[in-house]
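[09:14] KT: can someone run the structure on this one? pasting the chain below
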Amino acid sequence: MLELKHVKKSYDNVTILNDINLKIEDGEIVSILGPSGCGKTTLLNLILGLTQVDEGEIIFGGEDITNVPMEKRGFNIVFQDYALFPNLNVYKNITYGLRNRPDISTKQEVEDMIDLLGLREHLNKKIEQLSGGQKQRVALARTMVMKPKILLLDEPLSALDGVIKESIKEKIKEIARDFHLTTIIVTHDPEEALTLSDKVMIVNHGTISQYGAPEEIITAPQNNFVKEFILNQLQIKRNNIFALFHQDFTKEAQAV
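[09:31] RB: done, structure tokens below
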């Protein structure tokens, strides 16, 4: 279990996160959802150990890791921009972390991860030759061969569309299930959070507005912010989808 107790973080006397209390069970997928600037990425960085808390505790597996350095926590992150090495091919990107830690994954485990994420035919390609979805799968593979204790994902689907986005969502679910891997996702998209996660934490101005299962968020929002944020964002998404369909239909009509 990962537990945050009364966590607080400020920058230049401005409070970014205040009194964050959170429990995540082993193997759960949890999304941190909220508008830009609400503190969700800061929270991800605190869990990772990239940033230190000002107050409070972070407990993992019953041990206080509040002051444990990032490299000793055993967590790993897939960044929004994938952070892949353009001078290396796909296979070398996947195995990059194993150069200094070859004992973490066997060759067979690496091969199994490549097959799980459908990357076999792309191993000799350079990163620039890949689509967004393929880059995301490479980034996931590179992280997974390091066998993280917790998988952190920063806006993993923001650059993807349609079928590709759904495919990556299913891969994330499959990885979390098969490896019983606690997975924490930062997103601004309610649809992603509600369809991908076991639990959703909605953050507003550095505090938790609601934390619960997707069905609880939808059927029993605890305050007006949760209700309005979810409904407004979903309505914006529906409008955008309608606009795209209308645009495509107009082009086809003009072509005829």
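[09:33] KT: thanks! The longest strand covers residues 14-24.
[09:34] RB: yep, looked fine to me
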